[in-house]
Design a protein that fits this description.
By secondary structure, the chain is of the alpha/beta class. The protein folds into 2 domains: 296 residues, 2-enoyl-CoA Hydratase, Chain A, domain 1, CATH 3.90.226; 33 residues, no CATH class. Helices cover 46% and strands 10% of the residues. It has 16 helices and 10 strands. Strands 2, 3, 4, 6, 7, 8, 9 and 10 form an 8-stranded mixed β-sheet that branches. It has a two-stranded antiparallel ribbon with strand order 1-5. The longest helix has 63 residues. It starts with a helix and ends with a helix.
Length: 465
């Protein structure tokens, strides 16, 4: 009865960190609850199902852990389930935020537990105590990994955002809705119809008591909006503090209340990975293996790294968890880190000659190889042209040398001719172009020089005289 009262009180009061679409789709159930009408038969049957305590096999007949907490221990990991709308107090068939806080505290204090895995499927919920859940998760007294089964919206994201690693199961899961809103109802006409007249009287010393609601009923919502802004700012600051430089505002602004598919949330930086529960479980174990000493409050944790001493099989007996985690994912959803880890695991298991590569990367490589071949062809052509040009240049150099040599020989011949061809007080003797006949000689003598001819002429002249 007490739990149902808390639920009704939370519904009536607000404000809420919750997806409005989810809340509005459940309004018929809320109306039935507020008016005291019976719930649908299916829900009534589920409400009668109680969790039975499981006893262990030792002699003390004590349960291994509190059976009323939303927690199970698998190997060295405590799995805490967070599902449905979140209210501070739980109901007959649901847990409240205080139950989740107690479960995590129990895991932190249990020596068998080395890491905590939060399994989340929630549209958000009541503002109260969400900040406490956030602070506890952010404490990271032991490594905390958050796994989104279907939805982590509003208060649900607020509560888990401090985890060291956040993973969504599918690319179509919803993450985000970082914002706050409230609803209020004016029952005055309802009460008048029921014949009830209501009047609120305030002390003269309490002029600002409930001022936000009073002014909102008069159509002035500024003060109520200011109140909600404080809560929204705290939410936004928590996300910024937890995710830090991982947030990429160039992709989209997640701080305006929008909800994103996991593939977009990954690009924005709200989550770290998309993959099945087995991978999230492995992440938790790897973080635990990387940090055996309990950190003090507020200390930073080591980043995720693949542990060499980790078991070859995960909780489902799969030896190739990195590779199987990629099954069913669109290529665009697979990160380079996931591919590198899958290839590293193949190498660790002794698989040689096999490497995981994107088809797109192969296409890019093929395109680059084609471009490389074209460039090589151009280089070969230019190299041949260069070699031909060098050969022609060598010919020119050889001809220039020959010209130089012939020029030198010509100059030497001209100098020699000038040396022997000069006569005293006269011009150099000129060669006879053709043989001439001298009178009184017998026939032609091709070997007579001009001097001989002139001498013969003088002799003839002397004889005549």
């Amino acid at each position: 009865m007490n739990r149902n009262f808390h639920l009704v009180s939370a519904i009536l009061r607000g404000p809420w960190f919750i997806q409005e679409e989810w809340a509005e789709s459940h309004l018929p159930l809320v109306v039935n609850l507020l008016e005291g009408k019976p719930w649908p038969a299916e829900l009534a049957t589920r409400a009668k199902t109680l969790r039975v305590k499981a006893w262990d096999d030792d002699d003390d007949n004590e349960p291994d852990e509190d059976p009323w907490l939303p927690m199970d221990i698998v190997e060295n990991v405590a799995i805490v389930g967070i599902s449905g709308p979140m209210t501070k107090y739980g109901g007959l068939c649901s847990y409240g935020t205080l139950d989740y806080i107690k479960a995590i505290e129990t895991a932190y204090n249990d020596d068998r537990v080395e890491a905590v895995l939060l399994k989340v499927d929630s549209p958000g919920g009541e503002v109260r105590s969400i900040a406490d859940l956030y602070d506890l998760v952010k404490l990271n007294h032991k490594p905390v990994v958050a796994f989104v089964e279907d939805m982590a919206a509003s208060a649900a994201l607020y509560g888990i955002i401090g985890a060291q690693h956040i993973q969504a199961a599918q690319a179509t899961n919803e993450v985000g809705s970082i914002g706050v809103y409230t609803t209020f109802r004016n029952y005055s006409k309802y009460l008048e119809k029921a014949g009830i007249s209501q009047k609120s009287i305030y002390s003269r010393l309490s002029t600002e008591k409930n001022i936000e609601i009073r002014e909102a009923l008069d159509g002035k919502t500024e003060l109520l909006e200011d109140h909600l802004d404080v809560l929204a700012t705290a939410f936004i600051d928590a996300v910024k503090a937890a995710r830090g430089s991982k947030i990429n505002l160039e992709v989209a602004d997640p701080f305006k209340g929008k909800s994103f598919f996991a593939k977009d949330a990954l690009a924005i930086g709200l989550i770290d990975e998309i993959g099945p529960l087995s991978v999230a479980f492995e992440r938790a174990q790897a973080l635990a293996a990387g940090r055996k000493v309990k950190p003090t409050a507020g200390s930073t944790t080591q980043p995720f790294s693949h542990s060499n001493n980790q078991s070859q099989t995960d909780m489902f007996g799969n030896k190739f968890t990195k590779l199987s985690a990629l099954a069913g994912l669109a290529t665009a959803m697979i990160t380079d880190t996931q591919i590198e880890e899958a290839n590293a695991q193949l190498a660790e298991r002794g698989i040689e000659g096999l490497t995981l590569v994107r088809n797109a990367d192969l296409e890019v490589a093929a395109g680059l190889e084609s471009q490389l071949n074209q460039v090589k062809g151009q280089v070969d052509s230019l190299t041949k042209e260069r070699d031909d040009a060098q050969a022609e240049a060598a010919k020119v150099t050889d001809l220039q040398a020959q010209v130089q040599k012939l020029t030198e020989e010509r100059d030497a011949a001209q100098a020699e001719a000038a040396k022997y061809g000069k006569q005293p007080d006269g011009e150099p003797a000129k060669p006879v172009k053709k043989a001439e006949t001298i009178e009184g000689s017998q026939g032609e003598n091709p070997f007579l020089s001009q001097t001989d001819i002139e001498l013969a002429a003088l002799k003839q002249k002397a004889q005549l005289n």
